[in-house]
Amino acid sequence: TQTKRDSADLELKLQEDHKTHEAEINNATGKVDRAISELYDDRKGNLVVAPSKSGPKIDIAIQGDGNRGGIDQMKIFCFDSMIYEVTCERLGGPGFLVHDSHLFDGVDKRQVYLAMLFGAKVAERKLGQYIIAMNSDEFNACLEAAESSGRGKERNVLESAVMDVRLTDHETGGLFGFRFD
Asked: Taking the model in full, what pTM does it have?
């Protein structure tokens, strides 16, 4: 009985905390909504934060059918960009947002292009950097997909931000001074 009472008390405190921080939750929701609208012309979505018995439930919903794996990856992207923005606003932020190319596995190349552009714009607004570790062939495929769909007009923003290649697959290449055969 005491455990049930403690659980109910915690749930009540969480609900009160949720109401107290409604403005912050709405701010985060707006940022996720903006990210989704930048990535998709044909889909709507939102961030849902709800109190529950087991703690806060956080979910991002993006409407539509299609590549569920790719949409799930873009949910992570939207959440990450929101966390970056909120952290910058509240604490000054880390100054950078980093993604590995695995985040974009299974994602339509046009969406990857739009995500890279959105990440760059968010980082610029927050006076930070958006860093992606990506192979050049994947990067070029994203630019080409955006160009062929008529969305490549800001391609120079991304091309100008690319750093020189440090590791290559050439015979003279290597990793940390070691050659692999």
From this structure: 0.83
